[in-house]
Amino acid sequence: xxxxxxxxxxxxxxxxxxxxxxxxxxxxxxxxxxxxxxxxxxxxxxxxxxxxxxxxxxxxxxxxxxxxxxxxxxxxxxxxxxxxxxxxxxxxxxxxxxxxxxxxxxxxxxxxxxxxxxxxxxxxxxxxxxxxxxxxxxxxxxxxxxxxxxxxxxxxxxxxxxxxxxxxxxxxxxxxxxxxxxxxxxxxxxxxxxxxxxxxxxxxxxxxxxxxxxxxxxxxx
Length: 221
Description:
Shape: globular
Number of helices: 4
Order of helices and strands: HHEHEEEEEEEHEEE
CATH architecture: 3-Layer(aba) Sandwich
Oligomer: single chain
């Protein structure tokens, strides 16, 4: 499937992607800061007990339900782009199952081509998952491809301007740049992962809301 944009948001990484009037030393400093911050945030997530992870995931699911009920109401037929939890991300698969039972079409991201936007394949609780080249579970190729109306974005860290710190691959921003119409994007993360700023770059695309275990934060663009 050909995507509507010939150009994608950001190259796969790293210092060369920064182009906000910074000199080379500032570029290196920012790249190093992001690397260290990602490591710190992963340690923070790994420090959570299984009980805390389950509790926070349930609280986030409840806040997501409230946010989407207020924004959309009846979600039957709506396509929600979710994620399969990796690297200590909060596990919301139980909530995806509940949404499916309520008539929501859940789709999970797939890296179809390296350094290109993600695609989304439909998922149900009965889907037999495969694994991609990074050993991340994905729906199989025969599952229908969907375009999300709502897109969840797991955050390594985030700020109140709506920007997220991801894993550095650039896939999320490429995907947002390519999706038409643009979905309503909700960042999912821990409240403790809020930063004053992630120092967003020109290619970074802000989210529309952030949901953590303490509530939902709507972003004013």
